[in-house]
Fold this sequence. Notes:
Layout: E1 9-13, H1 19-24, H2 32-41, E2 47-50, H3 56-66, E3 71-76, H4 78-88, E4 94-99, H5 105-109, H6 116-125, E5 128-139, E6 142-150, E7 153-157, H7 158-161, H8 163-170, H9 176-186, E8 192-196, E9 200-204, E10 208-212, E11 216-217, E12 221-222, E13 234-239, H10 243-254, E14 264-269, E15 271-276, E16 281-284, E17 287-291, E18 294-306
Parallel strand pairs: 1-2, 1-3, 3-4
Antiparallel strand pairs: 5-6, 5-18, 7-10, 7-16, 8-9, 8-15, 10-13, 11-12, 13-14, 15-18, 16-17
Helix pairs in contact: 3-4, 8-9
Amino acid sequence: MINNMKKKYLLIYNPHSGDKKRIFSVTQKITLEDILALFKRNNITVDVAQTSHENHAEELTKNAIRQGYDVVIAAGGDGTIGEIANILVGTKTALGILPLGTYMNVARMLSIPTDLEKAIELIKKGNTRDVDAGAVTRLEGEKLREPYYFLESAGVGLEAEIHDHAQALEHGDLREIWKIIKTVKEYYSYPTKVIINNSETIETKATVITISNGSYTGPAINIAPQAKLDDHRLTVSLFTMSKFELIRFLLRVKTGSTAHSKHIQVYRAKEVKILTRKKRKVHADARLFGETPVEFKSKPKAITVITGAVSKDTFFINKNK
């Protein structure tokens, strides 16, 4: 637990968070002044830094660690949270979250309410847990100088191929619908090897392969209900259904149906390698990095986060050990 009377807080605010939400609804934008008023009402003093460009949240987080902040509060969407979390892994600085984005998968898994005043009350209480992270350790066959960490999931296959088009569509470019349809129509599943813990090799032509640290991904889809944020394993899901069956399946899951299917093979792994006959795009937490071959590892207890009352749906262990 964090004693807020003695801690230094830095609020990293993304002024563009929630833009996708406002494209499709009439949701009013929450201003920085609104947020600071809520902190003042809860007697919490915070310093503020605003992001101005891509990966700026990572730079601001590095500065916060150097300056001795105890808590970095991500005021933004899952992208902002992901950037900040990637830098906080392995440090003593805790992550707080103010959910301002569209889907808020990480906040959902940590039982953080979308009501900002209630989210700030959680920060004031300061209840923390240590959660795992997934790590991309090798990409395109080359070892990364520094692993890239993700809290949600990584993916290879059709999901990654349409990623850029889906992002543009969410930002309001309706022309991307036809590009998505074209990509899906022309997509072909090539032979792939998935190596689990350096001991088990699965040969597959899966349409999509997901490597999940947590259960939610994308537009709030519970894609891997077996995945827990503190089980020290990655959940590997091989979707062996056809691409059109996959789309129907994802639509069903999005509307609340179960994510279980006889066409999904699930494995648990500390380490995963993916080798493909033809190079495939790879993404982690909705960011494209490059192409296969790629390797992943689980990093247990990677980051300390301020949470709400955690759920057995997203956590394995009842107590933070």
